[in-house]
Each structure stands twice: as structure tokens, then as C-alpha cells.
Design goal:
99 residues; 3 helices; 40% helix; 4% strand
Length: 99
Amino acid sequence: MPALTRDDVARLAHMARIALTDDELDHLAPQLDAILTSVAKVGEVAADDIPPTSHSVPLTNVFRADEPRPCLRPDDVLSVAPAVEDGRFRVPRILGEEA
């Protein structure tokens, strides 16, 4: 049974470069310990006759085949753009000069 302590959470947060306050450590440590305990219980249920799987239900790919298809010509697309510059869409600046 996992026993994740407040000090363990503080050490993990430090290694992940996440700044946590004392209140956050007090709040998170029991929650993370409950998560680890729950995961450990799942591991106890898994038997050798149960094959490993990544999903509880079978999944199939619903995407179409990735095949090249005709596309729009750049001149046609740019002809309906509100603003064009050097053969590209011109958009308003969203970042400051220092970015």
C-alpha cells in the first residue's frame, strides 16, 4: 500500500521544478496517496489470465486513408484573404516587441 508523504510530494515537486506552498503540499499529499493506493488496488485485481490492454474496449481507426488529394491553389486562397504580404496571409501582431 503506497504511503506518499508530504516530504515525498515536496521532493517530487522540487525535481519537477513546481513551486508548491505548504498549504498545497498539505492538500496534495493525501490526494496523491489516495490515487496511488487506487492504482495499486487495480494491480492487485489483474491476474495472469487477463491480457494487458491500453483500453477497456476495442478501438478501430475511423480516419480515412492518408492519400494525397487535389487542394486549393495558393493564389486562389490568397485572393480572398483580407490582407496578404509576400505571398502569405497578413495577420495582426499578437506579441509585443520583446517576445
